[in-house]
């Protein structure tokens, strides 16, 4: 069926009507192929007319020229208990030039479930009038799966909410960034969000949605809180809900469970990205030995086509809790017990070896050479080799986080920062711009250090630094492996920071491909300095910076030998001995440049 016409009459509508259908089952879908091509071809939409409702419901829209191709459309009809009819309208405002066509219209799974001769077992429910046998998980889920409503009879209204009359006993979280909105019909932004609710399948029904347009920003969160539930005991509490995640910039929907009132809880389920213009059912099985609460959190993506919808949320086998969840203290102790030092006669310019009480000069602390017998002078320092396995950060720390409040979980959750990660913990799709395997082990279980760019904003930086290094030798260099892949990746810098100056030693920006790359940075002789890795966030979350296997090579300072230099060695002005092969090689091997003197 097609329209082919050149005309200039104002506001034309070509309408194609379906037969009238008496009802449809809960899994009913309509699919068809359409063609909408031409310079001024105009828009098209599918409308639903239900007996008893004055206003039609828009089920599908095509906006203007969609190219010289056939495209498939799938529309969720769901359970419609009253007679209905569909209308495909082709709209032309003013001049019409193009071809519009439709073909292969198919209705699938639209009949009511067939009657069964028997329906035995605890996992089945026998419908009262239609005699259909359905899964017991479909009982009291706000959907008429039987076709006679019997699976929705005798249900506890406190355990279900279809949002037709408000939020029921769910609440908006006051600690989040904005609220879920109750709405009818389509969301205000085109090409994102639902066109209708899930309960009624029409524009008359209500649902909740998360508005992704301004003033809301990337990573803003809207959290919905369930009522409180009693411990599940030997039974399993089942949570059913329907979600809608349609739009190019849809980001994340997640569900958490908590047993204390001032914690985010632990993750039960999550979904990322565009899932198509449809309502999707999700079932979660929850067990808890303590009273608990469910949190449903929507997170804003990188633009305004990221609306998320919720509808028909219900619990089965759960009992409401008449009380309050406990709170836990989130403050950390400001006091720490100092290590007991052995008896010693060390001055302020000296370091006390922890085991012996022996005194060494303070410059010998953190110089990559253990001068104490127990190596305590290198204990609170950066290690020579760090592979981050066993979640060990090897002395590297984040200065900005250290300066923040001790309440880490609240204040730094959404900050662009360095953190430990591994491929096994990535969410679906994140491996496109974050390493799936580490460099050390080459497995998904291996750990590395990375900056999660789904936090923060464009231009934000994250620093991770060594403690102060007192002295290094003339050949000292850092070797590390970096992973920089993603379309919006920012940059990575290696800095040298002293008390009054910060200098850039190495920098790399933009995507470097989906592999680990080796980098080498020469340090040479330096004193009382820190090495800093600085990551800068790009314009969006598609580009994390990762590092692994950081090695300080040949960094211990020179030693003055307790002997004269041999005939194979050169005696530096400062009494160090170096191989004669190192003379006049443009490297300051002596640390005083005497090996590079023109007088040699």
Automatic annotation (TrEMBL):
**Does the keyword section mention Disulfide bond?**
yes
Show where the MAM domain sits. Answer: 1-112, 159-320, 384-557
For this protein, the record's InterPro entries field holds: ConA-like_dom_sf (IPR013320), LDL_receptor-like_sf (IPR036055), LDLR_class-A_CS (IPR023415), LDrepeatLR_classA_rpt (IPR002172), MAM_dom (IPR000998), MAM_domain-containing (IPR051560)
Question: Per the record, what is one GO cellular component?
Answer: membrane
Disulfide links within the chain: 140-155, 366-381, 565-577, 572-590
**CDD domains per UniProt:** LDLa, MAM
UniProt cross-references to SUPFAM superfamilies, sorted A to Z: Concanavalin A-like lectins/glucanases, LDL receptor-like module
The reply to whether Disulfide bond figures as a keyword in the UniProt entry is yes
Classify the source by domain of life: Eukaryota
Keywords of the record, alphabetical order, are:
Disulfide bond, Repeat
Name-wise, this protein is: MALR1 protein
The primary gene name is Malrd1_0
